[in-house]
Amino acid sequence: MIRMLSKIDVVNMEYSMQLTFREQWTDSRLAYEKLGYDSPPKFLTVPHIKNNLWIPDTFFPTEKAAHRHLIDTDNMFLRIHPDGKILYSSRISITSSCHMQLQLYPLDLQFCDFDLVSYAHTMKDIVYEWDLTTPVQLKPGVGSDLPNFQLTNITTNADCTSHTNTGSYACLRMQLILKRQFSYYLVQLYGPTTMIVIVSWVSFWIDMHSTAGRVALGVTTLLTMTTMQAAINAKLPPVSYVKVVDVWLGACQTFVFGALLEYAFVSYQDSQLQSDQAKSNAARKAQKRRAKMELYRDYEPTLRERIRRYFTKPDYLPAKIDFYARFCVPLGFLVFNVAYWSSCWVMASRLYNI
C-alpha cells in the first residue's frame, strides 16, 4: 500500500514515498492446524520471533535511501495462520531513483519504476507474484498534494527478471505514471515569457529619436528574459539533449533581442540619411521647419488623425522599417506558436501513444 507520495525531485531524478510493504508466503513447518487444537486461533501475531523465521531477502534495486519506522514502536507485524501461511508487513519510507526523460518538459509524462528482487535466491528458490485482487493499494488522496505532478496510473505488468552470471532472479515491478501539471507552468513560465516578448514590441511604437526610452526598454526586457531562463534551467538537471522548453525560451529571447537589433538598424539608417541630407539641403530644411512651425502652431491633431498616422505606411525608410516591424514581428511570433504547439502535440502522441 502506498501511504504517501511526498516529493518528485527532477534535478536529482528521484521521488520519495511512504508505503506499507507486505509479503506473504507459506512455510509448512509452521502449520499448527493439525496439532490437535479444538479451536485453533485464526492467526498468531508474533513479531518478536522474526529473527528466528525464514524471511525472503527482498531488496529494492532503485532505492537511494530508506528507513523503517520505529516510533513509538517498531511499525511491523508478523502473522502465522493455521495452514502455515505467513504475512509480514512493515511501514517504510523510501527515496528511489527515477530515470526521467525530459525532452517534452514541461509537457511530459514520467514513468518511474519501483522494483523488488531477491538478493541471493534465484528463481529456483523464490518466485515473486503480485496479489491477484489488489496488487498495489493506494491510500485515498495519495499524490493529490503534489505541486507539479499528478499520479495518473500504476501498472504492475512489466517483466523485470534479472539475468546475471550467478543466475536468474525473480523480480516484480511497479510503475508510477506521473503527469506534469501544465497549469503551473502556464502561469509561471509561458505566460510571463509571452508578456516579456509583447512588451518588447512596444519599442516599435516609440518615436525613433527617443533613444533612451527604446534602448532602456530593449535592454530591460532582454535582461529579464535572460534571468528567467537561468532561473528555469536551475530547476532542471544538465542533460545532453534539447528540451521543448529550451526551444521556447530560445525563441522568446531571439524575438526580444531582435527588437533591440531592429532599433539599432533603424537608428543607424536614420543617422545616415540625416547626415546625407544635412550636407545638401541644410538651409532648405531650416526654412521648411520654420514654415511648418508657422502653419501648425495652433493646430492640434485629433485622435482619429493620430491613429491613422500610426497605421499609415510612411515614406521615410527608417520609419517604414518600424511600421513593418509592428505587424510582421507579432505575426512571426504567432506562426512560431502554431508550429511550436503543433510539434509538441505530435511528439507527445508518438512518445506516449496518446
TrEMBL record:
This protein's UniProt keywords: Cell membrane, Ion channel, Ion transport, Membrane, Signal, Transmembrane, Transmembrane helix, Transport
Gene3D superfamilies: Neurotransmitter-gated ion-channel ligand-binding domain, Neurotransmitter-gated ion-channel transmembrane domain
Annotated organism of origin: Nippostrongylus brasiliensis (Rat hookworm)
Localization per Swiss-Prot or TrEMBL: Cell membrane; Membrane
TM segment ranges: 182-206, 212-232, 244-266, 323-348
Protein's UniProt keywords contain Cell membrane: yes
Domain called Neurotransmitter-gated ion-channel transmembrane: residue spans: 189-292
Bilayer disposition of the protein: Multi-pass membrane protein
Family: Belongs to the ligand-gated ion channel (TC 1.A.9) family.
Annotated Neurotransmitter-gated ion-channel ligand-binding domain residues: 2-181
A GO CC term attached to the entry: plasma membrane
InterPro entries membership: GABAA/Glycine_rcpt (IPR006028), GluCl_TM (IPR044721), Neur_chan_lig-bd (IPR006202), Neur_chan_lig-bd_sf (IPR036734), Neur_channel (IPR006201), Neuro-gated_channel_TM_sf (IPR036719), Neuro_actylchol_rec (IPR038050), Neurotrans-gated_channel_TM (IPR006029)
Pfam family, one: Neur_chan_LBD
Superkingdom to which the source organism belongs: Eukaryota
Name of the protein in question: Glutamate-gated chloride channel subunit beta (inferred by orthology to a C. elegans protein)
Entry's Gene Ontology molecular function annotations: extracellular ligand-gated monoatomic ion channel activity; transmembrane signaling receptor activity
Xref: PANTHER family: NEUROTRANSMITTER GATED ION CHANNEL (PTHR18945)
